[in-house]
Design brief:
Elements lengths: L1 E4 L6 H10 L4 E6 L4 E2 L5 H4 L7 E3 L5 E3 L1 H11 L12 H25 L5 H21 L13 H10 L14 H10 L2 H9 L4
Parallel strand pairs: 1-2
Antiparallel strand pairs: 1-4, 2-3, 4-5
Helix pairs in contact: 1-3, 1-6, 1-8, 4-5, 4-6, 6-7
Length: 201
């Protein structure tokens, strides 16, 4: 398998999942403005959507969209328990978290990385982010992880999203459980390995 990624982007989430899985994989960085990969390939010929992440499977098929990719990886290694079993309520809780992080955190953060975004858009996005971060902080009041009392691929995605907050001047210390959560996930050997591979730590 090969993961196409941009350092520190949402593709960090499947990078963490792959590192946690113990499966063999390769990575290749993508320059998103030019749509060229590190080897010089035309990324649009690989992934017509033009964004990351994308996971090239050994079969030659391409899987896109982070939440789908991380569940695919988790299901390849059920013994690692990176996701609750299919059909369980915890599986749907995890999927709910994956969608929440994508639609409420990642989408709101996009305003701050879009050069065409005006101040009113950024202001609305900031208000939404602050509400959602407060909600997550409350949910972590009685748990160390998002679902089922153990690390799952949803935690890797939330860790990734929380890492963007410093770049957009949102101080997580306002919600004290969030820095503690971020440190807890960031201390995992697989997470450290993914960060190191992307030159983020």
């Amino acid at each position: 398998m090969k993961l196409f990624y941009k350092a520190g982007a949402c593709s960090l989430s499947p990078h963490i999942a792959l590192a946690e899985s113990g499966l063999p994989f390769e990575t290749e960085a993508v320059d998103l403005p030019t749509k060229r990969t590190a080897s010089g390939a035309d990324y649009l010929a690989i992934n017509p959507k033009g964004y990351v992440p994308a996971l090239l499977l050994d079969s030659g098929e391409l899987l896109t969209e982070g939440p789908a990719i991380v569940q695919y990886i988790a299901d390849l290694v059920p013994d690692k328990q990176l996701a609750p079993a299919n059909g369980t309520l915890d599986r749907y809780r995890m999927q709910s978290w994956l969608h929440f992080i994508g639609s409420e955190l990642q989408k709101s953060c996009a305003a701050f990385f879009n050069p065409m975004a005006k101040d009113d858009w950024k202001g609305a996005a900031r208000v939404n982010l602050e509400k959602r971060l407060a909600y997550i902080d409350e949910q972590l009041a009685d748990r160390d992880y998002l679902v089922g009392g153990a690390f799952s691929v949803a935690d890797g995605y939330l860790f990734t999203a929380l890492s963007w907050m410093a770049k957009i001047d949102i101080d997580l210390s306002r919600w004290p459980r969030l820095p503690a959560y971020q440190a807890r996930i960031g201390a995992r050997p697989a997470v450290r390995a993914a960060l190191s591979a992307e030159a983020l730590a």
